[in-house]
Specification:
The protein has 296 residues and is mainly alpha-helical. The chain has ten helices and no strands. The longest helix has 21 residues, at 10-30.
Length: 296
């Protein structure tokens, strides 16, 4: 009695070949669509990226984003090959993406940027409740409750989308708290709020100068801010204030520059009086009777 061949019979082999031909034909006609989990995003930016206007242009080129399992490149590598601006930010530790990604962590784009969700689906989907706002230079610790007592939401400040911010929102919101103050404040400092404000009032009334590289000692402790920072209206300008004595005390130099500009060699922050001067460091050390001679 002949043993049945099962799937290895002539008819079984013909059926398998026919199925492969059908599958191959569908792949040729539809590209990778039959294996795709969904349509790619079709929104285009201001200019092409990586030679295409949108991800939808890559619908038939799966390998443009999906590396082979046996290769070394990752999907994030494929993303950064096109999005060179993001790659530069990560390399130079600048911009939003470097602020969100630890320096030693491998990039993983899919955590925030999903695909195959439809032509009009958003490309950025993330849990904004846990967004590390401090990492982008503005803390939300002081922005928990609005003037009317309701809690802040992302849309309270980002009216259009989360990637843009209109600085005018600061002024309009704070006018509800104190309109006269805001009127004077804007007239004095302008509308570039983020130049000075970081959400923590780092440079506000509780600012501690002694935690900077220039602690206020002696007479400096009682000096007015404008005495050293006159006309400065940005954090960058405050941080660029000269820290050498002569920049501020040029007009106080009773020596008319004869002793150089290193005031601290003889004087302390407590007073101009009681200066200590080591004559031995000059070309005329005081010896003998000269040692007891008054300076005058």
């Amino acid at each position: 009695m002949t043993k049945p061949l099962g799937c290895l019979s002539r008819s079984g082999i013909l059926a398998a070949v026919a199925a492969l031909v059908v599958v191959a034909g569908l792949v040729l006609l539809g590209g990778g669509n039959m294996f795709s989990p969904g349509p790619l995003n079709a929104e285009s930016g201001a200019a092409p990226i990586g030679g295409v206007a949108s991800h939808a242009d890559l619908a038939r080129q799966c390998g443009a984003c999906h590396p082979t399992p046996w290769g070394t490149p990752t999907m994030a590598d494929r993303c950064l090959a096109c999005h060179t601006d993001v790659a530069a930010d990560l390399q130079n530790r600048t911009g939003l993406h470097s602020a969100l990604l630890p320096a030693d962590a491998p990039p993983s784009c899919r955590g925030c940027h999903g695909e195959h969700r439809g032509a009009d689906a958003p490309l950025t989907v993330m849990d904004t409740r846990n967004f590390p706002h401090d990492a982008v230079g503005f803390s939300l610790r002081g922005h928990q409750t609005r003037a009317d007592g309701t809690p802040f939401t992302c849309e309270s400040c980002h009216h259009d989308d989360l990637s843009t911010f209109d600085i005018a929102n600061c002024e309009s919101c704070h006018r509800d708290l104190d309109a006269p103050f805001m009127q004077t404040h804007v007239e004095t400092f302008g509308r570039a709020c983020l130049d000075c404000h970081d959400g923590l009032d780092t440079y506000g009334p509780t600012f501690d100068h002694n935690r900077t590289a220039f602690p206020l000692q002696g007479k400096h402790a009682g000096a007015d801010c404008k005495g050293c920072h006159a006309g400065m209206q940005t954090i960058a300008a405050l941080q660029a204030t000269p820290q050498d004595c002569y920049s501020c005390h040029r007009q106080d130099d009773a020596h008319n520059g004869q002793f150089g500009q290193n005031c601290a060699a003889c004087h302390t922050p407590d007073s101009w009086e009681g200066a200590t001067f080591d004559h031995s460091l000059t070309g005329f050390p005081l010896t003998g009777q000269h040692a007891n001679t008054a300076c005058e």
